């Protein structure tokens, strides 16, 4: 989870969240300057009930819009009714997007994708630079300067990296928009998701919350995760060359040799042959010692602050739940796939619960990508620093087109 990108907002709603007609919806986060759609509608939709990839960089990067004008959902035959009205508590069917049929996806990276020097392209695009400026006001320091100049140790910290990646990834949307045909690509996106931290970026792009509110959540998330890591020392290691069943067997064998507090689990189902294990330091050492006997090709200890996406992050839950309860979250305008269950959610209260659970739950990225591909995904874009997600997609399907929009 990293940060790296600046504020691209005019002092009204940012363009990647701005509908073609004027709407207004108050935010509970007082400092947010975004204007949200105030929706009152009945929407009836028909539904049908290896390569050049670096395993080390791919593993480390695992931690960690709505469309302008007409929105397109390729959904098939049973009817679902959604009603949203400002100032009311109208219930939202959480399964609204259950039968989504993706064609074009925006994919956002997670912690580990950061690198000193990112943000230089975004700095050249006024709308992207404006995002960084807005982020500076919220964070209280110059995030773009840290992205471009480092030092690396500072950029790599959990507290800073998550905000840096969040801002930089949304700046990449503006870089794309500034290109010939970029707006048409943005308008064609009908599903989005992000790796761990990237889920927050995806939700911001999809209009579930404002850029400012998302950045505040991401800032708090990084701080809370760091505090949890400091309270209970843990570690993570990537296991290369085994399927998920074998990695689970490896974890079981290691857990037989350590105390309960040191036990490990699979924390990130990244892609076939690359799974991250998280837990106590002694448990991780036992995994590393036994890996070769299970025919693992190699293990890579990850440079992270603690045992992310496990019970070790429980101390972060209450802070996240409190912040999420005070944040205005709306039904996304396109499906946003959750890391927790690899499903899209429409109900704002469910989204809040899922986001809180995410820090203690394994990341289901492999299932997410496989589902997108199996449902007919035609083209995807990785927006933000690095090319980790593109590598994952290519490992699963070499023929699936994916383009990097970097910063």
TrEMBL record:
<feature type="domain" description="Malonyl-CoA:ACP transacylase (MAT)">
    <location>
        <begin position="107"/>
        <end position="406"/>
    </location>
</feature>
<dbReference type="InterPro" id="IPR016036">
    <property type="entry name" value="Malonyl_transacylase_ACP-bd"/>
</dbReference>
<dbReference type="InterPro" id="IPR016035">
    <property type="entry name" value="Acyl_Trfase/lysoPLipase"/>
</dbReference>
<protein>
    <recommendedName>
        <fullName>Malonyl-CoA:ACP transacylase (MAT) domain-containing protein</fullName>
    </recommendedName>
</protein>
<dbReference type="GO" id="GO:0004314">
    <property type="term" value="F:[acyl-carrier-protein] S-malonyltransferase activity"/>
</dbReference>
<dbReference type="Pfam" id="PF00698">
    <property type="entry name" value="Acyl_transf_1"/>
</dbReference>
<dbReference type="InterPro" id="IPR001227">
    <property type="entry name" value="Ac_transferase_dom_sf"/>
</dbReference>
<dbReference type="InterPro" id="IPR014043">
    <property type="entry name" value="Acyl_transferase_dom"/>
</dbReference>
<dbReference type="InterPro" id="IPR052760">
    <property type="entry name" value="Mitochondrial_malonyltrans"/>
</dbReference>
<dbReference type="InterPro" id="IPR004410">
    <property type="entry name" value="Malonyl_CoA-ACP_transAc_FabD"/>
</dbReference>
